[in-house]
Amino acid sequence: MIPSGIEPCLIGLIRHPIELPSQTASPLAFPMNETTSKQARFSLMMLLQFFTRGAWFVTLGTYLGKGLEQPGEFVGFSYSLFGVAAIISPFFVGMVADRFFPTDRVLGALNIGSGLLMLLLSRVTDPTTFVWTLFAYCIVYTPTEALSNSIVFHHLPRKFFAYIRVFGTIGWVLAGLSVNVLLGMFVDNVEATSVPLLMSAGASVVLGLYNFTLPSTPIKDKGKKTGFKDVIGIDALKLAKEPNFAVFLGACLLIGIPIQMYFAFFNMFLNDIGVEHVASKMTLGQVSEAAFMVFVPWMIGRVGLKWMMTLGLAFWSLRYFLFAGISVDAQFLILFSILIHGACYDFFNVTGSIYVDLKAGERYRGAAQGLFMLVFLGIGKFFGSNLAGFIASIHQGDGVGTQYNWSGIFNTTGIITAIITILFIIWFRDKKKYDLNKVDG
User: Residue 178 pLDDT > 90, yes or no?
Assistant: First the structure.
């Protein structure tokens, strides 16, 4: 599903391109220097990192509903645990990585631990035990994505991040293909079984062991006296005192509304209006995400951080107005609205990760990435899911031949996202020129 031509893009921007500013170098340039080995190793790390979650996250609902015969409420509650864990865990663990243990060692231990918990989860059938085991897994797993980002930012210039992060998307897609194509060859109705969970468990342990082979990421504040405010990562919260960073965090929280509306209801919408092969069509969104991601550093050099994130927000708004006009016969519109997923997600989320690293610097890198994940994947996911559900509920039952008035749902979401975009343009005023070539480590 991921074109092989993406791989050259990973190799990325040459550190000193011919007379071109470093931040605006062509994304198709080929650096052959000392960073190439680290790029390759961190790319494999990112691929495995997202493979572990992609193996179970999409199929869990089918396994719970058909395999364990649990009701829809249980399925929804199980998925919400990931957001709750994202609120609790990454912030604390990011601080630990900054002060007590090398980040690569913390990451390795967490991935091995999450693999063992996923192995246990695959054997559990009692609903109560399942919930608690899944929650424990989520607590251990959720910090790993932020820590992976932190390692990359420590060792490489920031402009390389997008080219490495794209392999996370590839890993997610490969996990889905492995479930449906590879495992499906040997197990009937594999999505309704615990086999994908077992695959995730094995990949997590392999990843954890691999983490211990990565270049060392030293402790930045080793030996420093630590108080309660350090344990809860209060230093990273100080970043929110800066008005532009506070506006950015607010946008991270509110963008959860269109994101969760998409993941929770778009598949249902396409099925409701009679579109065929919905799941396969929606995977084009991940292909788009990978394709757009490799151009993020190049575009940041062209338009700047503010306008990159603004474009991401604006594309979400445009997307929902397109959704509102979709019918079963509008195949081009369906495909186009799916294919701009990369612009929606990458321009805001990937650029946001880079912005957080630039603002935090070396000292608070781990805790700051944890704060970003807390707001984006934790509070934002929880808030966005509930508000998306509320928007859908007020339009339920008044559609013409459909379960919902989808046009009303999508127009409402598009208007909300347009307001978020306008407020971001007005209130976010950080016009500083940042150097994406700098390595703080």
Answer: no
Where is pLDDT greater, at 147 or 19?
147
Tell me, yes or no, whether 31 lies in a domain: no
Helices (H), 325-364: 331-339, 341-345, 351-360
- pLDDT band at residue 34 using 50, 70 and 90 as cut-offs: low
203, 295: one domain: no
Q: For residue 415, give the amino acid letter.
A: I
pLDDT digits 0-9 by tens, 82-115: 878 877 775 566 566 556 777 888 899 999 999 9
What pLDDT, on a 0 to 100 scale, did the predictor assign at position 208?
96
**HSE-up (13 A, CA, CB side) for residue 85:** 22
List, as one string, the DSSP characters of 83-96: HHHHHHHHHHHHHH
- Give the C-alpha separation, 5 to 41, whole Å: 19
Q: Give the domain CATH number at 112.
A: 1.20.1250.20
Question: Is the residue at 174 inside a domain?
Answer: yes
pTM above 0.90, yes or no: no
CB contact set of 185 (below 8 Å; sequence gap of 6+):
none
Nearest 5°: phi and psi at 328? -60, -25
DSSP string, 226-268: --HHHHTTHHHHGGGGSHHHHHHHHHHHHTHHHHHHIIIIIHH
Geometric angle at alpha carbon 49, from 99 and 174, rounded to 5°: 170
Q: Reply yes or no on whether the pLDDT at 197 is more than 70.
A: yes
Question: What backbone torsions phi and psi does residue 238 show, to the nearest 5 degrees?
Answer: -60, -25
- pLDDT over 70 percentage in the chain: 78
Secondary structure element (H or E) that encloses residue 366, with its range? helix 365-373
Our measurement of the distance from residue 347's CA atom to the centroid of its chain's CA atoms, rounded to an integer in Å, reads: 12
Residue 21, in any domain of the structure: no
pLDDT at 111 (0 to 100): 96
Contact between 91 and 374 under an 8 Å Cβ cutoff? The reply is: yes
Cα angle, residue 422 at apex, residues 420 and 427 outer, rounded to 5°: 90
The boundaries of the domain holding residue 279 are 233-441
Closest CA to 440 of 136, 141, 277, 220: 220
CB-based contact 9:342 (threshold 8 Å) = no
